[in-house]
């Protein structure tokens, strides 16, 4: 794991306690326990380019009644389609990212998010993950279009390009788009590597890294998503362009000094970053970084990132992960 949670890291996350989702502009549902000004300096990236990613965990992470924090007060799992979509739209609107990616999104949720973000000027695309529901959707029915998968939103026009990076035994799909950030064309992808089989995940990562290198011959590349591996694992070396990696990317949160304990002496960055995943289904609870915003190192600089902790009223086992950068 990229480092333990320090006091500094904890304070840093607490500044974003509510910025993760914002205060809902709905007349029902919830009253949050704390409020943070969404226009405060802490809620804004200091860089020109902005990125926003979230593994939503569908509209019901699990049915265990002991995990009540997974449901906002006054809602049930079906209600989360509306509630969680509203939270996500507000968080994105407050931050204003150029590229947005979602993992584990039910198609019913995607339709609500798509309608709201298109009204705000975004372009939308979606693809089934190709690997079932993961138990995360209570309204999954592929025959009538209620799919489970991933989404990508861009401020610029965006193509829909799904790629199969799995195998028949372990299907997995990647959603990419030829789009742009400002006036510069980019290839952007919503990534969700396999969670259970390390060998299969390594195979998927190798395919993805090779594809990214080819795309990069023509344009900058952005990979955002849940890679299901921690920064120092061998599989992640296929993406980092430093610290023993053989890839072509910076990672948004690679220079966070609060997570520098594994960096070489004198280093200003490393394969680390803030926690993006938490589950209390283990004892002690599992906390780790497995979500990433990878930006091709030849094209982006001044990278930064923060994961946003939703407290006990979070609605996913992942945290919203935001990044920033400037052009080289």
UniProtKB/TrEMBL annotation:
Pfam families: Exo_endo_phos (PF03372). Keywords: DNA damage, DNA repair, Endonuclease, Hydrolase, Magnesium, Metal-binding, Nuclease. Residues 82-318 form the Endonuclease/exonuclease/phosphatase domain. InterPro entries: Endo/exonu/phosph_ase_sf (IPR036691), Endo/exonuclease/phosphatase (IPR005135), TDP2-like (IPR051547). Its cofactor is Mg(2+); Mn(2+). Gene3D superfamilies: Endonuclease/exonuclease/phosphatase (3.60.10.10). GO terms for molecular function: endonuclease activity. This is Endonuclease/exonuclease/phosphatase family protein. It comes from Actinomadura fibrosa. The lineage of its organism: Bacteria, Bacillati, Actinomycetota, Actinomycetes, Streptosporangiales.
